[in-house]
Write a structure and sequence with these properties.
The chain contains 22 helices and 14 strands. The chain has about 575 residues and is an alpha/beta fold. A 5-stranded parallel β-sheet has the order 7-6-5-11-12, with helices on both faces. A 4-stranded antiparallel β-sheet has the order 1-2-4-3.
Length: about 575
Amino acid sequence: MTIKATIQKKLSDLIQNLYQINDVTLEVQDNKTDFEGDFTVVIFPLVKLLKKSPDLLGLELGGALTGNTDFVSGFNVVKGFLNLTLKNEFFVQELRATKEGLNKIEAKNQSVMVEYSSPNTNKPLHLGHVRNNLLGFSVAAILKEAGYEVLKTQIINDRGIHICKSMLAWQESGLGETPESTGLKGDKLVGNYYVAFDQQYKAEIKELMASGLSEAEAKKEAPSIKKAQRMLLDWEKGSPEVRALWEKMNQWVYEGFGQTYKTLGVDFDQVQYESNTYLLGKDIIQKGLHEGTFTRRDDGSVWVDLTQEGLDEKLLLRSDGTSVYMTQDLGTAVERFKNNSIDKLIFTVGNEQDYHFQVLFKILGKLGYSWADQLYHLSYGMVELPEGKMKSREGTVVDADELMEEMYLTAKEKSQELGKLESLTEAQKEDSYTKVGLGALKYFMLKVDPKKKMLFNPKESIDFNGNTGPFIQYTYARIQSLLSKAEFKSVDEPFEIELNAYEKELIQVLSNYKDVVSKAAQSLSPAHVANYVYELVKSYNAFYQNNPILIGEQEQKQFRLELSFVTATVIQKALGLLGISTVQRM
């Protein structure tokens, strides 16, 4: 429980005893006035209920708190605000409680599956995937820290017309190229052929339009798209030749993805493949038809009518019998709840798919699945660059591997400018460059609320000052240097010292850690953790700049080192929830 929550709880008990009023929680704020006190209680809501003067009510509550608690040492009332001064030993005890509670997790006895990444096997991971992976991985870590059992998963979109486009382009013009023969990662090689298909397709459309067809007609009649559609049908029929090509090219991509995930620092507990779930989706379509939930039209296509739910009619199976994304997602969701003991399923997918998930959840509800109301779409805004949106088909995306390499090189350049790593070995320097570069990328991505669209600026993200990952990592490294110089060893002895405002404020911020994790878990927003650790670092730096730590009386010196140690521990834990590593030197 935070310090403010402790005060609020005691106030609520006193209000109930003094005035027989239940369920009243008065706001407790940091005291930012010139009047004495650590915290300010806003008592105006109670003034309206009791119809007493603010000053009189403040005197009554202040007197009751002083006489009935062991942590309030004094108070004053100014213009209806109750300012409280807390005893030094209360802050000292709070620091110890925070330290002892950092590794204690209260189990929620609920299991949550978090899906993220879920790329297509026709192109490498790009900047948008980076935000998706970092967000999903961080949310999973936060939920685990909050006491939930967590399963991290991804669904590989390994089949469909888009996959066939890459396959067809390689088959017709690849000349047997492989990742080994080209020196390219497999996902990049396959992605090149996806772009090549699109270029050929556009050229065909242009030629057909020149011959008199409309654009819509040309898109349907272009030879390339017809070949890709036939290949998809052959795949679904199990053609040995098509399946062999599909398996070979997908394996190239999986190996490429694996390297990217390793560098990015994300992982998964299980992986599903759409090629294994789309048939289950078709079985669900038959179930819906049998129960009258779905209808089959004259052309053989299958639809669901959601107009009564405020949506529209949705295609579930094409007239040629092939699946759509919705078919596959129905099958995947059912499979997950069938094979795992989970209470909730979170889909980490961009907000461009908001409507898709509304429809998916409604359909599963209509089919009678009891867990349908435990599905959640963690919708996030797209990532854009100063130049605008990225386009995969045109090959204008920011490649994830190239982005991470750029972050590493920028961190290396900045670190060398500062010249503080000269005493490290080359291996230690390389480790630091990598961690700082990735830390900058991850923090910049996660400090923004997921729902917001974001503009990514690599150079801004790696600034060693301000609200950035490197600034926070640098503070951690500074504390480690301080503790090492002092040969610090943590102790559990009680401290009987006078605390100043900087020390009290830092302890208060530290005590908020668990509350912030809980809030981040409830809102599924790592931004709460990112902004908290930045506030913690600012509070520590104010404390550091205004208090001598390695000089003075032994007890005070030991306490300030202890305060620094707990701060470093919380920084490391908070950054860990964001997938960010700490460094010992910067």
